[in-house]
Amino acid sequence: MAQLSDLPLQVKHKILAYLDSSAPPNPTKFPSQSRRSELGLYASVSHEWQLFFETRLYARLVLTQDCLPNFNKLVPRQRRLVRYIWFRILLGDYYCSKCPDSLSLKVTFSDLLVLSESISGLFGFFNSWGTSPGNDLALEISAYSPCDVTHAVKGDEYLSSDLVEMQDMVHSKGLLTDDLAHGWKDGQRIQSHDAGDFYGIKGVLGLSLPLMPLGISDAHVVTNLIIRRTTRRFITVAAIRQILERLPNLRHFIYEPWRPLPGFVDLNPGKIPEFLPKTLKTFNWFEDFNEEAIRVCQRDGPSNELERIGTDCHAASVTLARQSISFEQLTGCYSVDAVPFFQAVDFRWTWPSLTTLSLTCSLFATPNKRDEIVTLLERVGMAAQRMPQLQALDIWYGMRHHAAAFRHRVTDSLITISWLGTWDLNLEAQEDGVVATAWKALARLQGNRILYIATYRPVKMEDVTSHAAAIRLLGIGRSVIHPASLEEISRETKYYFST
Question: Which residues form the DUF6546 domain (predicted)?
Fold first, then answer.
């Protein structure tokens, strides 16, 4: 009688795959706890089964600080199978002013210590994995408290990078559907937030703490770092810098910090470009904000919505322009502005490897400044002539009731530029203008291609309910923000009290 061992390797693997009945169609998803148990049982059958199922068992891991002792027991064979680690740092509960027994400190010193010790501990274990970058290990770091969604901001969403809701947060949300003290009834917001609702959750982490003790070596095995908006607190630039300095082989960095609320001083998020490692090839920087929070927390601030959303990002833009020469992909959203970025550009520079560039530009929310926008797009076209590998460029802006984008794409024989948004720049009528001239020169340089100016595509103002809606309507989501983060923002928008 034929045995399983007698079959060709490909056939055996197909049969073993059928045993994994709960396997999702997408192999990049995190296995559930029940599926991990199932995979562990299969891996114990034989050496051959172990080799097959451990590949699935260890590829994507979710860890908390309590998992670190067991994580350190992985043998070298298992370590080589790990491709993605999501390190979820669990912080303590806290109260708010609308709850009994409220505490005045929303982020306590113990939380700061937990953050420090957790990251230090994980990096200490990575030290034992060797000094080679290995197999492109991605590390995602987040910090959270289950009670983040039990107070006023119940509409916040917490998704894993594979778009699955975090079950501990779902459970916490379900505890209080009627919470009149915080303005909720039957799971719906019935009154506007006040500033305290947002200050309660968005504390500061990493403040004045030495995250990495001097005795801990670099984490050579980590090549990708992801810090998504799922961490609702502000991780200080000093803390981020300490993490970056311990990653000597870092090539890809997704960074989605929250914009500091008024009153949080000296956080200096714009200084991040000064500390980027020279090994970095891909940098995706998206500074997120809750438009409802900004409206509420700046009641006495600017009356103009654009001025409230706007941020001073001149220095960060200039620094990033200089550093972008070595990048392959760069996105800078809200933390960076295209105007100072391209004003800082020296046309003698060359970007030999840059294929993708996406930047926000607050000018695009002001249709009355068309001449300045045209001047900018001419300068962008001139800079693009020094980017021989450029395939996609987006200059855009989005916020509630505003959306506009200038897009550039390369195909086999064409270079296409287009304008879309809530207002028309009338790009098509400027076929012989300075913008078209600059981009025609680029088309000739890139294989003597033809420049095509696409027809304007309008976006309805009433459809732009938030910056997430703008991103989706402009069709640039994949290039500027992590898909799970975009989905979180889109879901949260429906809880804005006024849109």
Answer: 276-482
**182: alpha, beta or left, given left = phi > 0 and alpha = psi -120 to 50?**
alpha
Question: What is the rounded distance in angstroms from the CA atom of residue 328 to the CA atom of residue 180?
Answer: 50
The number of domains in the chain is 2
Task: Give residue 237's pLDDT.
Answer: 86
What parts of the chain have a pLDDT lower than 50?
A: 22, 24-28, 104-105, 303, 308, 499
Comparing CA positions, the residue from 407, 390, 394, 395 lying closest to residue 446 is 390
In whole angstroms, give the CA distance from residue 88 to residue 62: 7
Show the DSSP H helices in 128-194 as ranges: 167-174
> Which class for 108: exposed (0-12), middle (13-18), buried (19 or more C-beta within 10 A)?
middle
Would residue 289 count as lying in a domain?
Answer: no
Residue 399 CA to residue 401 CA, distance in Å, equals 6
Q: How wide is the angle at C-alpha 144 spanned by C-alphas 141 and 150, nearest 5°? A: 155
| Domain end among 37, 59, 84 | 84
Give the residue numbers spanning the domain of 30.
4-84
Instruction: Estimate to the nearest angstrom the gap between the alpha carbon of 230 and the chain centroid.
Output: 9
**pLDDT value at residue 452:** 94
State residue 491's pLDDT score.
85
Q: How far apart are CA 106 and CA 200, in angstroms?
A: 6
Instruction: Among 84, 119, 139, identify where a domain stops.
Output: 84
Is 173 a member of any domain?
no
Q: Confirm whether 152 is domain-assigned.
A: no
- pLDDT for 327-380, tens place per residue? 999 999 999 999 999 999 999 999 999 999 999 999 999 999 999 999 999 999
Calculate the CA 496 to chain-centre distance.
21
pTM: 0.87
Q: 233 with 205: CB under 8 angstroms?
A: yes
pLDDT given for residue 25 in this prediction: 45
The span from the CA of 467 to the CA of 393, in Å, is: 19
Q: Got the DSSP string for 374-438? A: HHHHHHHHHHHTT-TT--EEEEEEEETTEEEEEEEEE-SSEEEEEEEESS---GGGGTTSHHHHH
Burial of residue 455 (number of CB atoms within 10 Å: 0-12, 13-18, 19+) = exposed
Give 224's strand partners.
Answer: 138, 252
DSSP codes joined into one string, 210-258: --S-TTPPP-TTEEEEEE-TTS-SEE-HHHHHHHHHT-TT--EEEE-PB
The DSSP element (H or E) to which 141 belongs, if any, is: strand 137-144
Instruction: Round to whole Å and give the CA distance between 406 and 409.
Output: 10
What's residue 74's pLDDT?
Answer: 87
Q: How far is CA 216 from the centre of its chain?
A: 27
- 301 assigned to some structural domain: no
